[in-house]
Amino acid sequence: MTSYPNATDGETRRVHIREVGPRDGFQSEPERIPTPDKIRLVNALGRAGFKRIEVASFVRPDVIPQLADGAEVLRGIDVPGDVARMVLVPNSRGLDNALREREFFEEAALFVSASQTHNKRNINRTVEETVAGVQVMGKRILAEGLRLCAIIATSFGCPFEGKVEMSRVLDLAERFAEAGATEIGFGDTTGMCNPAYASRFFTAAIERLPGIEVTAHFHNTRGQGLANAYAALEAGCTSFESSFGELGGCPVPAGSTGNIATEDLVSMLHEMGVDTGLDLELIIEAAREAQSTLGRQLTSHSIVAGPVSWYPA
Ligand code: ZN
What we know:
alpha/beta; TIM Barrel; eight-stranded parallel beta barrel; about 40% helix
């Protein structure tokens, strides 16, 4: 049996999956999703067993109107007490707004793009300015007793600049670790990674970041998301982010698909004997509910095919 060096509990193969659909996924939806629908879907995810859910983002409402109701969603959801609710914080004003809802979340995520052009286009600041802000915001987040997480977007390639050097990404990760982040997620924002590179990258990242939880965040833009996740797993990664229904996307390239689908990832892991603590059928149910809420066919394979266990051997 393959042993997974970064496993949390010895020989038992177990991974953590953070469901990011309510933020990363909903953010890309063109039609406004009513707040009660968002709340209902997050609650369904809570019932499916997720212990980590990215619920909201405190970006400016005029920039991303779809997420303007973050505070209401946080206040309205009813998930088990051991679920870590995460919010994404873009800047210090966003942090001010988030901290008004302090009692409704446990994890705060700061982010930067590894590539200068993507960072500029995304948040209109240089990478250096963003990292400087991380030091300040990180202190405030930790002082509130929150868990500080970091996300490095375009870690595996940038749609504007092309190749992004691994050393640059890992240097940024170290800066976040110095600022007190205990988890660092590496985002393949426009799906440019491949399994061979994922293997090299996560081997290096885990070695370079002792004591830090290293998280893989793959997009399925070019259909390689699950292969990349498998490669990261084999390299020792035990923490993943994914989106139910394969929700999400990125404006570049136009019409891109989103994050890897949680139900497809969980299906793969369960069939491989890797424990996720999740109920696959309930995830598929939630994805189907999202499908009817959004009024369109979602693109995950498991929504169509269902779990392997539905079929006789
Ligand atoms: Zn994503």
